């Protein structure tokens, strides 16, 4: 689901340009993660630091987003609820974090600014409660997502998606509420409708049992083909043909088989998707009108307009988050996302300027057809969250990225330890002249780690050992030494990383870290946050320095950094003989 946010170009640009002083900021961590995705060139990127910050936010736990590692607890989770709670939490959290930065900028500049989340996802929602005593209470708020409102009674007919969306954007209902005039709770008539259109319309499809049953019934009626126009056959993504053809006996063969895939294509061709690919919304005088979009070429070239107090927005499907149900085994449900990547996203990764749907299933990413992206099934594929974007969204926002990580990351270096002082500093900070590091300058780097939880393993009856859960490592110390210049061999970074998590093993024999070194109240070391040291390393990478060290691949993996291979000289591989084991640092120190 993070990939959906990554391919929203205005949001990606804003988060890449975002940087604040808060230690655990999801906006900053997403910006760092998006930067890694840009530079990784297709390699998988771990979101370890993002999850580390995510676990510290109380609201995440309150929403039930911190899941126990035990399998039994995962089986009991309601995945639609989990997906929609995650979406609601992330939009609210990112909006709050970016709004705080904008408020600070507004105080300095004297000009009012709007949060990037509000400008992209926000819609003004007008709500009015009317009592029988004719007292009205009205207010205007900003909403970041819309909950689809289904009929209370079970429908026996297929309801168009656009009708459901219209009643969700303009709600008239009766609710119990407190009346100040009557001085008691009473039944009020509530009217709610949106007054402005968002650039990104996020729709929660519902997670309650009644809502899911209604959604399944609508999809089932869609699949029954009662007067529904069939979709064209799925065009098969180009795959390598199996050389055994129809004689192949492997059930898990990953190559294409015409006789096996024929049934799959036939099962899709008879169902028109319940959710439309495009639609139009009109706002006029408190009335919301949702209608089919004109997909003609002339209409596609016209931007959204506001004429005669009528605001019109053309929307197209951008992403679908679905829950895949395993019909054969309970507890094996999975979450997948279908994302429509545009020309900007393709060109950023050296692709062609075209639109293409992709299926994201954990680390597996494959291109899919439009029909497969729109396809839903009441038995095994239910939509959870739909993302619709304005057709002219990118032209309405600034997509320029300003790198926020600059030379100031070294000047703002302050120790968190109460007992630390100049006498305890074991490094010489970079001078102003040295901050202009030329590309290719050598920097020796080493990192030490502590263990947060022990490895869990089992010994089988045959004597073999199986790892159930690997040990979790956390960076505790990062050191960088100058490799060039008049101060060659003098360290300029020697940071101890403060941690709020319980340390199981300090690995003192290998790391030299003593109990108390990472505690801000008693430590005498130069103690700082992981985020502060991360920015220093990020600045060095952006500058183009070459890192020299032993086992740097593992160091950067735990630190959660992606470094271009051309900027790494790892002695593990430098002194490895062909087809021989890797030598230890102790051996290299003895040998040389």
From TrEMBL:
A single cellular component GO annotation: P-body
Keyword set, alphabetical order: Cytoplasm, Exonuclease, Hydrolase, Metal-binding, mRNA processing, Nuclease, Nucleus
Domain USP: 1-391
SUPFAM superfamilies: Cysteine proteinases, Ribonuclease H-like
A matching Pfam family: RNase_T
Gene Ontology biological process terms, A to Z: mRNA processing; nuclear-transcribed mRNA poly(A) tail shortening
Any one Gene Ontology molecular-function term assigned to this protein's record: nucleic acid binding
Reactions catalysed: Exonucleolytic cleavage of poly(A) to 5'-AMP
KW Metal-binding (keyword) present: yes
CDD domains: PAN2_exo
PANTHER family, alphabetized: DEADENYLATION COMPLEX CATALYTIC SUBUNIT PAN2, PAN2-PAN3 DEADENYLATION COMPLEX CATALYTIC SUBUNIT PAN2
Name recorded for this polypeptide: PAN2-PAN3 deadenylation complex catalytic subunit PAN2
Gene source species: Caerostris extrusa (Bark spider)
Gene name of the record: PAN2
């Amino acid at each position: 689901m993070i990939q959906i946010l990554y391919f929203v170009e205005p949001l990606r640009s804003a988060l890449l340009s975002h940087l604040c002083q808060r230690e655990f900021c999801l906006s900053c961590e997403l910006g760092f993660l998006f930067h890694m995705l840009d530079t990784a060139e297709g390699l998988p990127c771990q979101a370890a630091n993002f999850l580390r910050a995510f676990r510290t936010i109380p609201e995440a736990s309150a929403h039930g987003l911190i899941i126990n590692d035990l399998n039994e607890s995962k089986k009991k989770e309601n995945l639609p609820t989990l997906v929609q709670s995650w979406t609601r939490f992330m939009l609210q959290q990112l909006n709050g974090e970016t709004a705080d930065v904008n408020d600070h900028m507004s105080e300095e500049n004297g000009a009012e600014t709007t949060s990037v989340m509000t400008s992209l996802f926000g819609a003004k929602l007008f709500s009015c409660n009317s009592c029988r005593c004719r007292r009205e209470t009205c207010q205007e708020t900003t909403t970041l997502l819309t909950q689809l409102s289904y009929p209370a009674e079970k429908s026996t007919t297929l309801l168009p998606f656009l009708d459901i969306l219209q009643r969700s954007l303009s709600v008239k209902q009766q609710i119990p509420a407190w009346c100040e005039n009557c001085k008691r709770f009473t039944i009020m008539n509530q009217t709610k409708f949106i007054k402005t259109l968002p650039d990104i319309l996020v729709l929660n499809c519902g997670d309650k049992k009644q809502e899911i049953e209604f959604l399944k019934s609508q999809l089932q009626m869609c699949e029954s083909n009662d007067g529904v126009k069939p979709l064209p056959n799925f065009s098969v993504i180009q795959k390598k043909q199996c050389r055994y053809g129809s004689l192949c006996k492997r059930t898990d063969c990953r190559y294409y088989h015409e006789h096996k895939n024929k049934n799959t294509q036939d099962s899709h061709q008879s169902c028109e998707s319940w959710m439309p690919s495009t639609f139009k919304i009109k706002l006029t005088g408190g009335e919301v009108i949702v209608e089919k979009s004109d997909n003609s070429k002339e209409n596609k070239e016209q931007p959204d307009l506001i004429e005669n107090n009528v605001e019109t927005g053309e929307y197209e499907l951008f992403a679908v988050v679905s829950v895949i149900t395993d019909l054969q085994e309970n507890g094996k449900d999975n979450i997948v996302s279908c994302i429509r990547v545009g020309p900007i996203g393709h060109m950023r990764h050296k692709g062609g300027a075209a639109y293409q749907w992709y299926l994201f299933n954990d680390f597996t990413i494959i291109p899919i057809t439009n029909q497969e992206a729109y396809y839903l099934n009441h038995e095994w594929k239910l939509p959870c969250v739909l993302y619709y974007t304005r057709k002219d969204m990118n032209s309405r926002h600034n997509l320029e990225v300003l790198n926020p990580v600059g030379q100031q990351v070294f000047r703002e270096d302050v120790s968190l330890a109460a007992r630390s002082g100049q006498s305890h500093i074991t490094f010489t900070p970079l001078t102003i002249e040295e901050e202009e590091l030329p590309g290719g300058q050598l920097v020796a780097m080493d990192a030490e780690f502590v263990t947060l939880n022990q490895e869990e393993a089992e010994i089988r009856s045959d004597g073999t050992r199986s790892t159930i859960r690997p040990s979790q490592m956390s960076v505790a110390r990062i050191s960088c030494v100058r490799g060039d210049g008049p101060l060659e061999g003098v360290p300029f970074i020697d940071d101890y990383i403060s941690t709020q998590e319980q340390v199981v093993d300090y690995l003192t024999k290998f790391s030299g870290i003593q109990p108390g070194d990472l505690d801000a109240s008693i430590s005498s070391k130069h103690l700082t946050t992981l985020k502060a040291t991360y920015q220093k390393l990020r600045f060095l990478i952006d500058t183009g320095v070459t890192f020299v060290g032993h086992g740097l691949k593992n160091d950067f993996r735990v630190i959660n950094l992606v470094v271009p291979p051309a900027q790494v000289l790892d002695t593990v591989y430098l002194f490895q003989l062909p087809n021989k084991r890797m030598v230890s640092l102790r051996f290299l120190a003895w040998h040389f």
